Amino acid sequence: MSVQIGVIIKKVMEDKRISPSELASRLGVHPGSISRIFNYKHMHSSLLQKISQVLGHDFFKYFTQDIRVERPESEKQIEEFKKEIEQLRKENGYLKQINELLNKTNKT
Q1: Domain ranges of the chain
Q2: Whole-angstrom distance, CA of residue 2 vs CA of residue 11
Q3: DSSP string computed for 57-108
Q4: CA 31, 37, 42 angle in degrees (round to 5)?
Q5: Are 23 and 16 spatial neighbours (Cβ–Cβ below 8 Å)?
Q6: Are 3 and 63 in contact (CB under 8 A)?
Q7: Nearest in space to 33 (alpha carbons), one of 20, 43, 42, 15
Q8: What angle do CA 17, 51, 8 make, to 5 degrees?
Q9: CA-CA distance, 45 to 13, in Å (whole number)?
Q10: Is the pTM higher than 0.70?
């Protein structure tokens, strides 16, 4: 799916009743720059972040809605690591107890 981010920005501005000159002022750019933004199909993420902040709208969501991140394998690995860490903590506790007993035995 191709996102025409400039069209979406224009729509959000209209919904929020923010004029191009007001957006330009908030962004600190020349008003003519805003009309060019409306034709953008792509833009640098730093500019999109500034526009998102100024308009109080997450424009990045339009790019991530079709991304499917599968994490089951990594989540399984994390669970296995947690179990292993817990087992190592128990073993460490046992070793400390054994060490204490050995120290007591050697002192007597």
Answers
A1: 5-64, 70-108
A2: 17
A3: --TTHHHHTT-----HHHHHHHHHHHHHHHHHHHHHHHHHHHHHHHHHHHH-
A4: 155
A5: no
A6: yes
A7: 20
A8: 65
A9: 19
A10: no
What does the alpha-carbon distance between residue 79 and residue 86 come to, in Å, rounded to a whole number? 11
d(CA 95, CA 35): 70
Local confidence pLDDT in tens for the 108 residues of the chain: 567 889 999 999 999 999 999 999 999 999 888 988 888 877 889 999 999 999 999 988 888 766 666 666 777 788 899 999 999 999 999 999 999 999 988 886
Tell me which fold the domain 5-64 belongs to.
434 Repressor (Amino-terminal Domain) (1.10.260)
